Amino acid sequence: MKPQDLLHTHIVASTETALLKLAGELDMATAPLVDQAVADCLACGVLRLNIDLAAVTFCDTAGLRALERAKRASAARCTVFRLAGMHRQLRRTFALHHASSLIAPAMTDLMRLRGATQRTTEDRMGTSTHAWASRICPAP
Fold first, then answer.
1. Tell me: the pLDDT tens digits for 9-37?
2. How big, in percent rounded to 5, are the helix, strand and coil portions of the chain?
């Protein structure tokens, strides 16, 4: 059986965002397909890369490493990286392999964190300030 029979990749891209949909098994045999699809997305110069895992039926450590490589490649190009469609089985796999850092916090968690950061900054500075987040990109 060929890797293409085990994992299907589909890219939907606009000028700023790429959505990479994965369906099937994400393992040692199919990880190179993910690497290539991510490289194709990033070559377009997108600002955001979303990977939809809703149709992934199996993921092992080789699959997790492929997603970690995708995150590092995105960061190297200053592209926002996000995983979507994380069903219960995948969340458990990520937790068991200590790969939860790949999962972005939920928006409610980000808002709560932003509020806590702003309150802490205001307490320290004694004035009302805005908490800003920025990303540091490597020099080209």
1. 999 999 899 999 999 999 999 999 999 99
2. 45, 25, 30
